[in-house]
C-alpha cells in the first residue's frame, strides 16, 4: 500500500499567517491537499507527518535552536553496529533474573541507515511476561553513550527501584550496571523506559512492555489471539534523524512529533487473522508527544482495561484516544475477509483561522482471510462484562467522590528569550486553541524552542509553589482528591498527559461531569482548558514523581515529587 501523507505541511501554520498578512488566500489550501510522500525522499514507511523544512518566514530563516545538536553514535561507523531486531517475549517466574542491556544499534528507516538504541538490541525491548504477584530481578547494563536509568512505568514497586535519577538512584553511567528488583502487584500491561533524557532515549527505541497475567480465573475474555502493540512516531527528514538538543531538549513547546509511524518499531506493521477472529490488543503509546485516536478499519472495538486494570464495565467504542504513556486493552472482532487498516483519525487545526479539518493516517494493516476463525468467539465478544474487583474498589471509595478537593494544580507555561519574530509567529499561531494537539502544525517554530527558553509549569494553587518546590507529603492509606486545571490562556497551551509514579488513581470527573465507568490509571490526559478531578489512593511509600509525560515538557521542568510516609 502506498503510504500517504494526509496532514498539513510543517509550515502550514506559518504559511497561513503569511497568506493572511499578504491577503493571498491559496496557501491555506495546502492544509486540505493530500500530499503523496512518494514525492519525498522517504521510500518506505507510513508517513504521518510532514518533512521538516527550514522556516520559510522572513525573520526566521537561518535560525537554529539555542541547544547544540546531538545525534547518536557520533564518530562511529553505523554499519559496524549490530542491527536492531524485533521484540522477543520472555517468560519470567517469581525470583527469576533478566539481563537487560541498553545498546547502540543501527537500522534502516526507508533508504537511510540510522543509529538508534535498543534493549538487548530489540526495538521494542523484550516483552517481559510475568504472573501477578511475581518479583523479578533485572541486571541492567548501560552500553549506550549517555547516562540512563530504567523506570518501570505504572508498576507499584519498591521506591528504590523506580529509576528516577536524583530521587531514587544515581544515573547509570555508560559501562555501568544497576540491579533492579521489580514486583508486580497489579495485572495488566505496563512498560519500561529510561528516566534520563526520554526525549532522546525513548525516541531512539528504549521502550518495552511488561504483561502481567492476572491471578484470577476468568479474568481474560476468550479471544483467538492476543497481541501487544506499541504506537510510536519517529522524526526523520531527508538526511535521517532530525538532531536532538545536546544540553537542552528541542521541540520544547509542543514536543517532538514524528514523521513516520512505527508499530512495534516496524515501519510497515502488517498482520493477518482469520475471518470472525477476536483479537485482544494491548496498546501502549510510547511516543514523545503524539496522542492517537486509534481504530481498526471500522471493526467493532470493545474497551476492556486501561493503565492499571479493568474498567468497571466493558463498552463498545468506535475509537480509542491514547495519550503518551497510556495503555488500553481492547478486543477487536474482524467480521469478514478484507483489509482493516489500523487508523489514526484526528482533528488538525489552522491555529490562526480556527479552521479544523480531519486527518486520517494508516499506522498498520490487518488482513483478514476468508477461512473462518475457530473457535468462534462472537457471543463472548458481544457480551459486555463487569469487573467485580473494580466494582468493589469503587464501592469502597465512593464516600470520597463528592468530598471537597484536597489539592489543586494548575498547568501553564512561561517562555523567555526566544527571538521576537518567533514569539510573534507563535502568538498569532495560537489564536485558536485545540483541546488536544493531535498534530504539530508549527513544527518549524516548535523545533527552535528549547528547554532553555520554555518552562512548563505545574503550580500548586494553594501555595503558589511550582514544579519541584511543591513537595507534597502524604501517608499510606490517604485518599487524596486532586483537581488539575489546564490553563487555556497560557501563552501556548497544550494538552498534557499527567503521570504519577508508584500509585494508582481514578479519573473521577472532567469539567464537573462525573465519570460513570471508572478504571485505575497512572496517566490522565488534560486537554487544553479542561479541569479533571483525580482520586489518588496512596498505597506505596517513598519519594515519587508526578509529571507530564510529553518528554520535552518533562525536560522543560514540568515535574514535581511527592513523599509518601
Ligand atoms: Cu513513564 Cu516518569 O514516567
Ligand atoms: Cu505536557
Task: Give descriptors for this structure.
565 residues, mainly beta, seven-stranded mixed sheet, six-stranded mixed sheet, binds CU-O-CU linkage, binds copper (II) ion
Can you walk through the features of this model?
With 565 residues, the chain is mainly beta. 9% of the residues lie in helices and 40% in strands. The protein has seven helices and 36 strands. Strands 1-16-12-18-23-20-21 form a seven-stranded mixed beta sheet. Strands 27-26-29-34-31-32 form a six-stranded mixed beta sheet, with no helix packed on it. The chain has a five-stranded mixed beta sheet with strand order 3-6-11-10-8, with no helix packed on it. 51% of the residues are buried. The protein binds CU-O-CU linkage and copper (II) ion. Copper (II) ion binds next to loops.
Blueprint of the fold:
Elements: H1 12-22, E1 46-47, E2 69-70, E3 89-91, E4 97-109, E5 112-119, E6 127-131, E7 135-143, E8 151-153, E9 177-183, E10 188-193, H2 198-201, E11 208-213, E12 225-234, E13 236-237, E14 240-241, E15 244-245, E16 260-263, E17 269-275, E18 278-285, E19 292-296, E20 301-306, E21 309-317, E22 320-322, E23 327-333, E24 338-350, E25 355-372, H3 378-382, H4 388-397, E26 407-415, H5 420-429, H6 443-448, E27 454-460, E28 472-474, E29 479-486, E30 496-500, E31 504-510, E32 513-514, E33 523-526, E34 531-537, E35 542-548, H7 551-555, E36 559-564
This protein binds CU-O-CU linkage and copper (II) ion.
Amino acid at each position: 500500500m502506498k503510504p500517504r501523507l494526509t496532514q498539513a505541511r510543517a509550515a502550514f501554520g506559518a504559511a497561513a499567517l503569511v497568506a493572511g498578512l499578504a491577503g493571498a488566500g491559496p496557501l491555506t489550501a495546502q492544509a486540505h491537499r493530500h500530499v503523496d510522500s512518494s514525492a519525498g525522499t522517504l521510500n518506505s514507511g507510513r508517513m504521518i507527518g510532514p518533512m521538516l523544512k527550514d522556516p520559510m518566514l522572513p525573520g526566521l530563516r537561518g535560525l537554529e535552536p539555542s541547544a547544540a545538536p546531538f545525534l547518536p553514535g557520533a564518530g562511529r561507523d553505523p554499519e559496524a553496529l549490530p542491527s536492531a531486531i524485533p521484540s522477543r517475549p520472555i517468560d519470567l517466574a517469581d525470583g527469576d533474573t533478566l539481563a537487560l542491556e541498553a545498546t547502540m544499534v543501527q537500522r534502516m528507516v526507508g533508504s537511510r541507515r540510522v543509529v538508534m538504541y535498543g534493549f538487548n538490541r530489540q526495538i521494542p525491548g523484550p516483552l517481559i511476561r510475568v504472573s501477578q504477584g511475581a518479583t523479578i530481578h533485572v541486571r541492567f547494563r548501560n552500553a549506550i553513550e549517555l547516562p540512563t536509568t530504567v523506570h518501570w512505568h505504572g508498576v507499584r514497586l519498591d521506591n528504590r527501584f523506580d529509576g528516577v535519577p536524583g530521587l531514587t538512584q544515581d544515573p547509570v553511567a555508560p559501562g555501568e550496571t544497576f540491579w533492579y528488583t521489580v514486583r508486580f502487584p497489579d495485572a495488566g500491561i505496563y512498560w519500561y523506559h529510561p528516566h534520563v533524557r526520554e526525549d532522546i532515549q525513548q525516541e531512539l527505541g528504549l521502550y518495552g512492555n511488561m504483561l502481567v497475567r492476572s491471578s484470577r480465573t476468568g479474568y481474560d475474555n476468550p479471544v483467538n489471539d492476543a497481541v501487544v502493540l506499541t504506537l510510536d512516531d519517529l522524526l526523520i527528514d531527508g538526511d535521517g534523524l532530525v538532531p536532538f538538543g545536546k544540553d537542552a531538549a528541542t521541540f520544547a513547546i509542543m514536543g517532538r512529533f514524528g514523521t513516520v509511524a512505527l508499530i512495534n518499531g516496524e515501519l510497515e506493521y502488517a498482520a493477518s487473522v482469520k475471518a470472525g477472529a477476536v483479537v485482544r490488543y494491548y496498546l501502549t503509546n510510547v511516543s514523545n508527544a503524539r496522542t492517537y485516536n486509534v481504530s481498526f478499519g471500522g471493526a467493532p472495538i470493545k474497551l476492556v482495561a486501561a493503565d492499571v486494570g479493568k474498567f468497571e464495565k466493558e463498552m463498545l467504542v468506535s475509537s480509542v484516544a491514547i495519550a503518551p504513556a497510556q495503555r488500553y486493552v481492547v478486543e477487536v472482532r474482524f467480521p469478514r475477509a478484507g483489509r482493516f487498516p489500523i487508523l489514526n483519525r484526528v482533528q488538525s487545526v489552522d491555529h490562526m483561522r480556527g479552521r479544523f479539518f480531519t486527518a486520517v493516517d494508516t499506522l498498520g494493516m490487518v488482513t483478514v482471510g476468508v477461512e473462518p476463525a475457530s473457535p468462534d468467539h462472537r457471543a463472548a465478544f458481544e457480551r459486555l462484562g463487569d469487573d467485580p474487583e473494580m466494582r468493589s474498589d469503587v464501592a469502597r471509595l465512593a464516600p470520597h467522590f463528592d468530598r471537597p478537593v484536597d489539592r489543586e494544580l494548575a498547568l501553564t507555561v512561561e517562555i523567555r528569550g526566544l527571538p521576537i519574530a518567533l514569539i510573534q509567529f507563535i502568538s498569532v499561531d495560537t489564536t485558536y486553541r485545540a483541546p488536544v494537539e493531535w498534530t504539530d502544525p508549527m513544527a518549524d517554530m516548535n523545533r527552535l524552542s528549547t528547554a532553555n527558553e520554555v518552562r512548563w509549569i505545574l503550580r500548586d494553587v494553594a501555595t503558589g509553589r511550582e514544579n519541584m518546590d511543591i513537595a507534597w507529603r502524604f501517608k499510606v492509606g490517604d485518599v487524596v482528591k486532586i483537581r488539575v486545571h489546564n490553563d487555556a490562556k497560557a501563552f501556548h497551551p497544550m494538552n498534557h498527559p499527567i503521570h504519577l509514579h508508584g500509585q494508582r488513581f481514578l479519573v473521577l470527573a472532567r469539567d464537573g461531569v462525573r465519570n460513570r465507568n471508572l478504571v485505575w490509571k497512572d496517566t490522565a490526559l488534560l486537554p487544553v482548558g479542561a479541569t479533571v478531578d483525580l482520586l489518588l489512593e496512596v498505597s506505596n511509600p517513598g519519594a515519587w514523581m508526578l509529571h507530564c509525560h510529553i518528554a520535552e515538557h518533562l525536560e522543560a521542568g514540568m515535574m514535581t515529587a511527592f513523599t509518601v510516609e
